[in-house]
Amino acid sequence: MFLERLPGIGEKTANRLAFHLLRLSESDLKEFAQAIVDLKSKTKYCQVCYNFTEDDLCEICEDRKRNHDQITVVESVLDLISFENGDIYQGIYHVLHGRIDPLNRVGPEDIHIKPLLNRIKKSKSLKEVILATNPDMEGEATAMYIRNQLEELKKSLKTDFKITRLGYGLPMGANLEYADYMTLRKSLENRNNF
Amino acid sequence: MFLERLPGIGEKTANRLAFHLLRLSESDLKEFAQAIVDLKSKTKYCQVCYNFTEDDLCEICEDRKRNHDQITVVESVLDLISFENGDIYQGIYHVLHGRIDPLNRVGPEDIHIKPLLNRIKKSKSLKEVILATNPDMEGEATAMYIRNQLEELKKSLKTDFKITRLGYGLPMGANLEYADYMTLRKSLENRNNF
Questions:
Q1: Of A74, A82, A138, which to mutate for an interface test with B (greatest number of B Cβ within 10 Å)?
Q2: CA–CA gap between residue B122 and residue B115 (Å, rounded)
Q3: Under 8 Å CB-to-CB from A160, ≥6 apart: which residues?
Q4: Please, how many CA atoms are within 13 Å of residue B29, restricted to the half-sphere of its CB?
Q5: Which of A134, A186, A189 lies closest to B176 in CB terms?
Q6: What tens digit of pLDDT does each residue of B139-194 get?
Q7: Which of A129, B19, B78, B136 has the fewest other C-beta atoms within 10 Å?
Q8: What is the CATH number for A97?
Q9: H or E element at residue B38
Q10: Model's pTM, two decimal places?
């Protein structure tokens, strides 16, 4: 059965879903099936930032109210959604769709780094690139690789913009007692005047 | 049975511990019992920082190699142990033994804030106080209260030292996808040049 093959869905949930579908009217079922067929054909990458979109540009890149001089680089669309759900960021994004991960044979060419560099070459008023890859080994390596590429780009273009990385430290609501020492060390290094 | 009253120990574990104790020799048992009796009578507060100690001063306050011009203020000895386990900090501490928590009727007078201020009054070369209370409501309120007290102290003593707070942000190994928006917001605010 197809439902059982979906991630996180076992036999019991699959049965429950199947019985729910059986209770739907035929027209509802057709609509649902069509939506599934359309999912892949209608979903495209945004031509600028590689977010998912049904048009050429995603909603964020099309939004004139957002700050187009600030680009946050994330590994996946799910990370982008995290920022958007928080309503904490007014700039735009660039989605890499992956991370440099030599153990799994993912190199810089396999993720959307080149389009990022091309995009920045064309941009005239860029002020900041925020490297928001995950705070682990591969995310860190990816951020460092992109940082070096951007520094070279700055030199060759004779332009300047900030390159920043998300702050590391204690997450909100954390308990020092249970914090790992790497996080504690970061929170000490990144302490702020108060 | 006494063992069952210990935190985190249920009936089964209590039985297992009891059977283990039964297997010990009488002299081992007596030694163990004496250690428990001594625990309370021998353990004192360090006269300077309120860490636990068997002497007047704790090992950290007595250590001449540590930086006595940098004081980290923590809520509990367990937090101090977190820092010490990491081997990431060379300064000394001040343990509040609590936090300001009006809902549970804990005010500034109920924790060791006054001894901290007295201690700082006597110090001649203090360079920094790091407020390392937990990143939650009560910890934040406690840090703010102490900050204000320290600012007044600075004015009245006509001296100067830094007051800092641990950095907040993404913990190491975190995944942006699952980060709460408060933590994401902090990691954006606290982003660093990279």
A1: A82
A2: 11
A3: A154
A4: 10
A5: A134
A6: 999 999 999 999 999 999 888 999 999 999 889 888 888 888 888 888 888 888 88
A7: B19
A8: 3.40.1360.10
A9: helix B26-42
A10: 0.77
